[in-house]
Specification:
Blueprint lengths: L4 E2 L10 E8 L12 H11 L3 E5 L14 H8 L2 E2 L15 E4 L3 E10 L5 E9 L4 E8 L4 H12 L9 E6 L38 E6 L4 E6 L5 H4 L5 E6 L1 H4 L12
Parallel strand pairs: 2-3, 8-9
Antiparallel strand pairs: 1-11, 2-12, 3-5, 4-5, 6-7, 7-8, 9-10, 11-12
């Protein structure tokens, strides 16, 4: 399996590390075919993120009820869910949920995405002590032409003079290089060219799950969370990324393009 993406630290720089994660929980059905929300909660506790985006966190049909015990997760980890569902019994929007540890949510938008399948994204504005942060969490479609349109719709929601922004989730793009639909986001988001395999969980080959930032230099490390429990709890491994929030508040506000992109 390919190792983690690492960006060399700037000489004389300082770090304000913030851990972001993304996890397609496969409706709590593990690679062994067993439904077990408790295992997902344990994997989230293993990661210990500041923010985590979840995909497939609700039932697919019917009332779209949530599948996790959010109160138990909060007691164990301190993470609380953002209010993104339109149902009292749901966790997310089109299965996309977001849990965060600290800060205040100042805005939530639900975005319907174009394509052959019903897909959506959530846009959450989080006011942190260090800086505001916009998080766009999504689960993109299986068809390449749909993904390209979906990424264009997401990109249209990003303002060049807006806050630092993350796009993360199961982006369902296994292609790299010129064939990747993620090039739609280049050069404003990165690291596009830093795939970390996360699927299938028991033998990861495809980098379906991503964390991209604007400016791209905010991401200092991306890796899969590869533990014995994570390999069985879902069909995807979670991915986790270290974000250097100190880069947002230091200097003159200019963010050079990451040479690794």
């Amino acid at each position: 399996m390919q190792g983690p993406y690492l960006r060399a630290p700037e000489e004389g720089g300082h770090r304000g590390d913030f851990l972001i994660a993304s996890y397609n929980i496969h409706k709590c059905v593990g690679s062994d075919g067993r439904f077990d929300p408790g295992r997902i909660a344990e994997v989230i506790a293993e990661i210990d993120p500041d923010v985590i985006a979840l995909q497939e966190a609700d039932k697919r049909f019917g009332r779209r009820d949530g599948l996790l015990d959010m109160e138990a997760i909060e007691k164990r980890t301190g993470l609380v869910p953002a209010s993104v569902s339109t149902l009292a019994s749901g966790h997310g929007w089109h299965g996309n949920a977001l849990l965060y540890r600290s800060g205040a949510i100042t805005g939530v938008e639900r975005l319907k995405l174009p394509g052959a399948e019903p897909r959506g994204a959530i846009i959450v504005d989080l006011e942190l002590e260090a800086s505001p942060l916009r998080i766009i969490a999504a689960h993109l479609g299986l068809l390449r032409h749909s993904r390209k349109r979906q990424l264009q719709a997401i990109k249209a929601q990003v303002k060049t003079d807006g806050p630092p922004t993350l796009i993360l989730g199961d982006l369902n793009e296994w292609r790299i290089g010129d064939r990747s639909s993620l090039l739609t986001l280049d050069p404003h988001f990165g690291p596009v060219g830093a795939p970390v395999p996360s699927f299938p969980a028991q033998f990861p080959v495809f980098a379906l799950d991503r964390v991209l930032s604007s400016p791209g230099g905010l991401v200092t490390r991306i890796e899969a969370h590869d533990s014995p429990l994570a390999r069985v709890a879902s069909d995807h491994l979670p991915i986790k990324a270290t974000i250097d929030l100190a880069r947002i508040t230091s200097g003159n506000g200019q963010f050079p393009r990451d040479p690794a992109l």
